[in-house]
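Hi V.,

You were right to ask for the full record rather than a summary. Here it is.
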Amino acid sequence: MGMKFRVLRGNHAEGKYPEGHPWAGRSVTYEIGEIVDSKSNLARHNKLGPLGPKFQRIYDSTPATDKVKQGLEIFRKREARDLADDGNGPHGAQPQMPPDGLDEMTLTELRKLAKEESIGLTAGTTQAEIISLIRGAPVTA
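Predicted structure:
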């Protein structure tokens, strides 16, 4: 256990995410307000100037920010969001077209509709063939 410092401005990278973590090997980055448990004295990076010090030494029992746990929670939330079923994506149910009513029509009604839509039929065309031809016909305005 090292010294604890609060990041006051900018950010600070210290260590890497451990094996088995989704971000394994990436640098652990601490943002403003988070507490770093460091093996080195980060106060040496504090410079005099208009921006003030970058790190504040913490002497009390305030725990260091658990970046590994935070990173895992962020990863899980992103994964859940990406895999959520919104009904539009590859993970969701595909929308169904409303019924067109062709299956309930008689052969005579289908022949009349095909004629109105300029679909040529032969004398022996079956009901299923006519429905298929009507559904496959290009839409005309």
